[in-house]
Design goal:
By secondary structure, this protein is of the alpha/beta class. The longest helix has 12 residues. The protein contains 2 helices and 8 strands. The strands form 2 sheets. A 4-stranded mixed β-sheet has the order 1-4-3-2, with helices on one face. A hairpin with a 6-residue loop joins strand 6 and strand 7.
């Protein structure tokens, strides 16, 4: 049996903006973004909500992020998880960490640890928690 688990992120109306940012930052490709207005149930969706994302998918080489916008009454700020990103160099760790931290919150500064040359934790401006890690192969 093969199992593939992908994070599915929910946003407070900024899913498209977040996915475009993540694609540029991480070198991924957005495979698709469907709005509520493009769905078969578009006529049942309030007009202001039709431009919000019903489903988005971002391919990041060997992994996939998925997401959507949650209605205001259903949106909850994400907690209890983080997206872990593993990069190939200390410079790349700094670039990714700094970009995620812009407009967000640094939860643990990017630094050397006993398990990594660079590791840091940040919650980005879209309220998504991230862990950035660089550990060269032994």
């Amino acid at each position: 049996m093969r199992v593939l688990a992908n994070p599915y992120l929910t946003f407070d109306g900024r899913c498209r903006e977040a996915f475009e940012f993540y694609a540029k930052l991480l070198g991924g490709e957005i495979e698709g973004i469907m709005t509520h207005g493009e769905s078969p149930s578009a006529g049942e969706v309030p007009a202001p909500w039709r431009s919000k994302v019903m489903h988005a998918q971002l391919n990041l080489r060997d992994s996939v992020l998925m997401g959507s916008d949650a209605t205001p009454e259903r949106y909850e700020r994400p907690t209890g998880f983080a997206i872990a990103v593993h990069v190939d160099s200390a410079a790349e760790a700094k670039r990714v960490f700094d970009a995620l931290a812009e407009g967000g919150r640094v939860d643990m500064p990017l630094q050397e640890t006993f398990w990594a040359k660079r590791f840091g934790m940040v919650t980005d401006r879209f309220n998504i928690p991230w862990m950035v890690n660089y550990s060269p192969a032994s």
